[in-house]
Amino acid sequence: MPQNLKPLTALRFFAAMWVVGFHFWPNLGIAMPAIVGKGYLGVELFFVLSGFILSHVYLERFKAGTFHYGEFIWARLARIYPVHISILLGLAILMAGLAISGIQAGDKLLVWSSLPAQLTLTQAWGLAPHGGWNHPSWSISAEWFAYLTFPAFAFPMVRMWNRPRLAVGLAAIFLIALYIGFGAIAGFPLTRATILWGALRIVPCFALGCTLWLLWKSGAIRSRAGAFGLPVGALAVLVASTSFGLPDFVSVLACGGLILGLGALARNGSAILSAPWLVYLGEVSFAVYMVCIPWQLIFGQGLQKLVHLDSEHMPLVFWLVMVAGVVPAAMVVHHLVERPARNLMRRVEFKRDVVNVRGRLKIEY
Domain range spanning residue 334? Predict the structure, then answer.
């Protein structure tokens, strides 16, 4: 099994809470700080990290010819689909309950025309233009697109196995060019695309993550000082770029440097961001991301109904309770849905026969 890169697992939690802060801040009714206003880039951090981790787990198998696409897709589906479906069902029940209680949660959630795309995880492919349901799930649809097309990312990675710096450079150029070109054509940044262009949004980030893993594997950062300096410097660039309104591609590249540096620290045996409680929060981060909007709806509507406070101008203490409350809500989903469903789905076995044909590995399902 590949090395367990614990700091990168912990990093997922901070990425999720960055997104949570972006979505929850308007409930305070005050001006949003610049770095919070860039919280949508937490999704880009997830996308780059996804490319890095999936390359860490699967790319050597792909190179060796032992990569099994069916098992890969099933494992990825087990990772994301049970929580997604449970949240959809929960939202439908919640809307019904609110309606019975005389609370109108708006008509932007239950968009029945979008349900087929929601059920097939294609809502970020332009197939659900009216949105609705659990909005953050668009990024899970984008992830699903990257999973399905993983071989298209893996093939060029294998070709550039011994040229990782070139691979990273090309991925960075592709990302910058796509961001500039998309913004010029569409009139808005690719980093703000969701239900219409979400599948495209993941492509440059995922590719960057794959190439960064190649660089990490090559041992380009060997010294402990270098491994420590890279994430510190990348974090400084990320804070500066988000605070001073630099182009989003600067922030995304800084996210890549942060991931590469933390991976190097883990390789060098550092315990930074490796505490069990941080790693656990990282494991819960997917549920944090998926439940944040339903929890925001429940808490805001409850506040209005029970104590007659405007959910768009919450007192700070109530807002802090809402932010903190998303974590235990996510823990419930993680332990009651995510983990047991994933473990159950992964019990499915794929029968395969491996035979050698003219010196090549052939997999027959």
Answer: 6-364
Question: Is the alpha carbon torsion for 79, 82, 85, 91 positive or negative?
Answer: negative
Distances (CA, A) of 309 to 94, 298, 325: 20, 14, 18
- CA atoms of 295 and 290, how far apart (whole Å): 9
Give residue 150's identity as a one-letter amino acid code: F
Task: Name the region of 121 (left: φ>0; alpha: ψ -120 to 50; beta: rest).
Answer: left
Half-sphere exposure of 347 (CA within 13 A, CB side): 5
DSSP 173-193: HHHHHHHHHHHHHHSS-GGG-
- In the chain, how many domains are there? 1
202-246 pLDDT per residue, tens? 999 999 999 999 999 998 887 778 888 999 999 999 999 999 999
* Residue 1 lies inside a defined structural domain of this protein: no
Residue 263 lies in a domain: yes
Q: What is the pTM of this model?
A: 0.92
Give dist(CA 93, CA 53) in Å, integer.
35
∠ CA 200-135-205, nearest 5°, is 30
Residue with tokens 């540096």: 261
Q: Tell me, yes or no, whether 331 lies in a domain.
A: yes
CA distance 259 to 261: 5
Domain presence at residue 110: yes
